[in-house]
C-alpha cells in the first residue's frame, strides 16, 4: 500500500480549503482509515494570502503530507502568471503550478515538491496540431515547461534547496518537447530512468506515459527507485 510522506494531486475539485472541500474531505477520510492527524494538506490560499491562488478553473493541483514525518518550510508559492497559464495562447490553458519545500523531521533533510497539470490534448489551441504525433497544444505545454523551469530556478520557496521533485500530469509522453525541455533544463525523468517504457494510462486501446516525476540534477542520484501503481 502507498504510504507517502508527501503526495502530489491533480484534478482536485477547486472548491477551496474549508471543511467540506475536496482536499479536506480526502484528508479526513485518510485519517479515518489510518490514524487521527496522520495526514494534513497545504491550504494554498491561507499560505499565500491570495483567494483562489490556484486559479478559478473547475479543478486544481494540491499537496497532502504526513506532519509526523515532514514539516512544510519556506514559502508556499504558486506559478499563475499569464505567461505560464496561457503559455502563448489566447485563453488560459494550464493549471497553476504549486511548489512547497518540506523538511524531514528525523534528519533535517530538505526537498522542494512541485505539482503540475498541463493542458490536455483533447481540444485544439490557437496554433493547430503540427501533425508530428505530439497532439493538440504541444506548443502550449512546451512553453509552460520552459516557464516552469525558469521559475523554479528563481528559488520561489526561499529555501535555496537544490533538491526539487516535479510531479504531475504533463499530458506529454517522455519523448516529446514539453518533457525534453525539462530534461534540457537539467531535470531527470525518473520513470524513464528507473522503469524504461513504463505507462501511466490506457485510453481507447492505447497506452503511454502522460504523468511524470522529474528530479533536479542534485536530487536524481539520491532517488533509489520509481514505481507506477
UniProtKB/TrEMBL annotation:
Cross-referenced InterPro entries: Endo/exonu/phosph_ase_sf, Endo/exonuclease/phosphatase
Organism of derivation: Candidatus Hakubella thermalkaliphila
Coiled-coil features, chain-numbered ranges: none
Gene3D superfamilies registered for this protein in UniProt: Endonuclease/exonuclease/phosphatase
Pfam families: Exo_endo_phos
GO MF annotation, one: catalytic activity
Superkingdom: Bacteria
Protein name (database record): Endonuclease/exonuclease/phosphatase domain-containing protein
Amino acid at each position: 500500500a502507498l504510504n507517502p510522506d508527501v503526495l502530489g494531486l491533480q484534478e482536485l475539485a477547486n472548491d477551496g480549503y474549508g471543511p467540506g472541500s475536496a482536499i479536506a474531505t480526502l484528508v479526513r477520510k485518510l485519517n479515518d482509515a489510518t490514524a487521527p492527524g496522520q495526514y494534513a494538506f497545504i491550504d494554498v490560499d491561507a499560505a499565500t494570502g491570495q483567494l483562489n491562488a490556484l486559479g478559478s478553473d473547475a479543478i486544481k493541483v494540491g499537496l497532502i503530507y504526513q506532519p509526523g514525518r515532514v514539516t512544510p518550510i519556506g514559502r508556499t508559492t504558486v506559478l499563475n502568471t499569464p505567461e505560464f497559464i496561457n503559455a502563448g495562447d489566447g485563453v488560459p490553458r494550464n493549471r497553476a503550478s504549486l511548489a512547497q519545500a518540506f523538511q524531514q523531521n528525523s534528519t533535517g533533510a530538505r526537498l522542494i515538491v512541485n505539482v503540475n497539470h498541463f493542458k490536455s490534448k483533447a481540444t485544439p489551441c490557437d496554433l493547430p496540431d503540427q501533425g508530428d504525433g505530439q497532439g493538440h497544444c504541444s506548443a502550449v505545454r512546451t512553453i509552460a515547461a520552459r516557464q516552469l523551469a525558469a521559475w523554479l530556478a528563481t528559488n520561489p520557496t526561499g529555501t535555496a534547496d537544490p533538491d526539487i521533485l516535479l510531479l504531475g500530469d504533463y499530458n506529454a509522453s517522455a519523448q516529446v518537447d514539453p518533457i525534453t525541455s525539462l530534461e534540457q533544463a537539467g531535470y531527470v525523468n525518473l520513470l524513464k530512468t528507473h522503469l524504461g517504457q513504463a505507462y501511466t494510462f490506457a485510453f481507447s486501446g492505447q497506452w503511454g506515459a502522460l504523468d511524470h516525476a522529474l528530479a533536479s540534477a542534485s536530487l536524481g542520484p539520491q532517488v533509489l527507485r520509481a514505481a507506477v501503481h
